[in-house]
């Protein structure tokens, strides 16, 4: 086995991972090892595997990506794999779990940590315990976003009647976000009224996300799909509920980049850029500006495990 004998189980608002430190850079996992470790019946169990290592030890990185890590001050890299063994560009929740893991290991001092990812260098600030977001809270600057035409896709779920318009958002990895409902009276913009009028899926809690959603027109890279209901909307901030089906692992309790993509889409429909979003794993804050997105949420180290 390529991976070390000792690994750590962690989660960030229920999005769970198997992590290990590879300081020497010689413990790159195989796809089969990732699938084994992430298997919830025969392995440790997780939505993905994270190898914390040096950028130079990540075989698939280009010279430009390694140079970006050096220029961005990232000595450490989050080598993230989906549960099916495939590579992933980015995982917002994974950055927080990785930062807490690195903090315990003494890999950074002070309150900030710069972490390399396949979607660029991310800066994380440690905020400690912060209500209502939980313990060991980090704020991560996810970086730039790119949104496609509003409602240009159609999202459906096999076996579920109806569909809803979906908006493509690139957060360093691909997402399609569907607004499927809103609390009474929340329809103050034409864009939101149009989206709600075209939505024909059940309410967020009632969706069957064990089934992979279908996006049309299809996106060649595949994508994560987020379903959101707006619960409250003020002048400066809003609240929403979200669920997600992630490519490579199915429904997860939380998805950091998916939360960011959701907030980007909500901003485009309402003009409001600050959102507290409830997922099955907890509550997180997302702040969207024209230039970037910041995500605030907790992380938890569950256990250190010795593999047999």
Look at the structure and give the CATH class of the largest domain. Answer: Alpha Beta
Q: Which CATH architecture of the largest domain?
A: Roll
Instruction: Tell me the number of strands.
Output: 19
Helix/strand class:
alpha+beta
Report the uncertain regions.
none
State which percent range the strand residues make up. 35-45%
How far is it from the N-terminal to the C-terminal residue, by CA?
Answer: 11 Å
Number of helices: 5
Total domain modules:
2
Q: How would you sum up the major sheet? A: 19 strands, mixed
Helix share, percent: 10-25%
Radius of gyration: 19 Å
Counting copies of identical and different chains, the oligomeric state is single chain
Q: CATH homologous superfamily of the largest domain - what is it? A: Diaminopimelate Epimerase, Chain A, domain 1
Overall mean confidence score, pLDDT: 96
Order of helices and strands: EEHEHEHEEEEEEEHEEEEHEEEE
Give me the CATH fold name of the largest domain: Diaminopimelate Epimerase, Chain A, domain 1
- Shape descriptor reads globular
Description:
With 308 residues, this protein is α+β, with helices and mostly antiparallel strands. The mean pLDDT is 96. It starts with 5 loop residues before the first strand and ends with a strand. It has five helices and 19 strands. It folds into two domains: 6-141 and 297-306, Roll (Diaminopimelate Epimerase, Chain A, domain 1); 146-291, Diaminopimelate Epimerase, Chain A, domain 1 (Roll), CATH 3.10.310. Helix content is 18%, strand content 42%. The protein has a 19-stranded mixed beta sheet that branches.
């Amino acid at each position: 086995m390529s991976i070390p004998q000792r690994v750590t189980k962690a989660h960030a608002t229920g999005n769970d991972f198997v992590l290990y430190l590879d300081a020497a850079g010689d413990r790159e996992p195989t796809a089969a090892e990732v699938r084994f470790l992430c298997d919830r019946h025969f392995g440790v169990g997780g939505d993905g595997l994270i190898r914390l290592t040096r950028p130079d030890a990540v075989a698939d990185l280009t010279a430009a990506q390694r140079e970006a890590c050096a220029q961005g001050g990232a000595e450490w890299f989050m080598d993230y794999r989906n549960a099916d063994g495939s590579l992933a560009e980015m995982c917002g929740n994974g950055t927080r779990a990785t930062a807490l893991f690195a903090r315990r290991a003494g890999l950074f001092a002070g309150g900030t940590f710069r972490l390399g990812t396949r979607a660029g260098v991310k800066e994380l600030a440690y905020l400690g315990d912060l209500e209502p977001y939980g313990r060991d809270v980090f704020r991560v600057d996810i970086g730039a976003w790119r949104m496609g035409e509003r409602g240009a896709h159609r999202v459906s779920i096999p076996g579920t009647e109806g569909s809803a318009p979906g908006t493509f958002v690139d957060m360093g990895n691909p997402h399609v976000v569907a607004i499927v409902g809103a609390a009474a009276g929340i329809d103050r913009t034409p864009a939101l009224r149009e989206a709600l009028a075209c939505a024909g899926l059940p309410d967020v809690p009632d969706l069957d996300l064990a089934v992979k959603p279908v996006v049309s027109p299809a996106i060649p890279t595949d994508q994560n799909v987020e379903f959101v209901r707006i619960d409250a909307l003020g002048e400066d901030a809003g609240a929403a509920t979200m669920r997600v089906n992630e490519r490579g692992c199915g429904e997860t309790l939380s998805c950091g980049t998916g939360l960011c993509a959701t907030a980007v889409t909500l901003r485009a429909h309402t003009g409001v850029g600050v959102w507290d979003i409830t997922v099955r794993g907890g509550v997180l804050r997302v702040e969207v500006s024209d230039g970037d997105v910041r995500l605030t949420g907790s992380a938890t180290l569950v256990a250190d495990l010795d593999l047999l």
